[in-house]
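Can't paste images in this forum, so I'm doing it all in text. The chain is below; anyone willing to post the predicted structure tokens underneath?
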Amino acid sequence: MAMCGRFTLIAKQEVLEKRFHAKFDEPIVPRYNAAPDQNLPVVLNIDPEKIKLLTWGIKPVWLKHLSGRRELINVKAETLKEKKTFASDLENRRCIILADSFYEWKTVEGQKRKTPYRILLKNEEPFAFAGIWEESKEDGRPRFAIITTTPNEVVEQIHHRMPVILSKKDESDWLDKNVEGKEAIELLKSYPASQMKSYAVSTMVNKATIDTPAVIMPNRFEIKSLGL
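Text version of the structure:
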């Protein structure tokens, strides 16, 4: 499973519009298992008052030269800082991705399968991932990728990376076209562990076709077996 390869957005539409000060272009349904190649709610820096449904996974021109790679769903914050690969995206095409939790998979000694965990804010409120977007060379439609960084103390027990979750203040700065890339990149940091929590869920989350409330239910067997 790719780092940050699944997340949820189950908050009601009116709650999200109020929280992000933007209106949906079209109605949405709850997503308990959002996955790559799906159309998901995003706010672009060129139109911050609208929430649009964009496909998850960008396809840079150079990607076709890498064997077996179809699209990029994540981009490392370190890559944005150290390489010019995504310089234009960082400067001109920033976005936020609406979510209220994400999943990561933990390797447990003695178990063949990795254990999936749901990771969310302690207050269980919606939040925004930092992202970049590009127009598809195929149809001209925008697509997005989520930016990842080093994990905080909650996530590092599960995985070696985590998506960048922006604070409410930093959301507006990330979307502000007047904020230069060199300033915006300083916003790409780990979210405070003190404000987050996690719990084990069923391996049914491994299948993107399963998108029901059952996916987010605590896996009591896994929790007990891990001594939690």
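The two ends are 24 Å apart (CA to CA). The mean pLDDT is 91.
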